[in-house]
Specification:
Order of helices and strands: HEEEEHEEHEEEEEEEEEEE
Radius of gyration: 24 Å
Distance between the termini: 88 Å
Number of strands: 17
Helix content: 10-25%
Length: 180
């Protein structure tokens, strides 16, 4: 009988140790600027890590944190999936000498949402690669003399709404408005 009690006590102690995490403690890797194809790169994921081209990287959880880190090294590329918001003038001002590159299977899966701003002012060169941009309908992007480049499957998320004589609403894709 005592042998059964000792085995039970040992098993209970082992289960308590495992539950307390004594054998499973580890720290998550801190995000940092990586080198991808010889260029500075920051990754964004709300989960803190992301996979790209067969590698797993520690990721910044916000666009602002990634831009701050890239700003310290003179710019680079932000890799992201899903939707990121550029919802303030302060955050927009940090988009200098940077490429925003979507990594989802389709460009429509990597969305940059500029929110309800009536316009967007560039404060530095900006390249959008394999992603979709969403702005308020009719809201222009003013380049202010900086380079604005779109490549590799880029698209915009604008639409025009038209009401015909029968008061039927018809919507169709609208072009993105870019001004110097």
């Amino acid at each position: 009988m005592k042998r059964k009690q000792r085995i039970f006590a040992a098993a209970a102690a082992l289960m308590l140790a495992v539950q307390s995490g004594a054998y499973y403690s580890y720290a998550a890797a801190e995000p940092k600027i990586e080198s991808v194809n010889g260029e500075n790169a920051a990754f964004i994921s709300r989960f803190g890590k992301i996979s790209y081209s067969g590698e797993t990287y520690a990721a910044y959880k916000t666009l602002e944190a990634a831009l701050d880190a890239l700003g310290e090294v003179g710019g680079g590329t932000v890799y992201f999936g899903g939707e990121i918001a550029v919802d303030s003038a302060q955050l927009a001002a940090k988009l200098k000498n940077v490429t925003l590159k979507g990594i989802d299977k389709k460009a429509a899966g990597s969305v940059i949402d500029f929110g309800s701003a009536e316009s967007f002012e560039l404060c530095g060169d900006l390249k959008l690669d394999y992603c979709t941009i969403k702005t308020e309908n009719g809201a222009p992007i003013h380049t202010n003399g900086y380079r604005f480049e779109t490549v590799n499957g880029f698209d915009s998320y604008n639409k025009e709404v038209y009401h015909n004589a029968n008061k039927t609403e018809i919507s169709y894709p609208a072009p993105l408005i870019i001004t110097a």
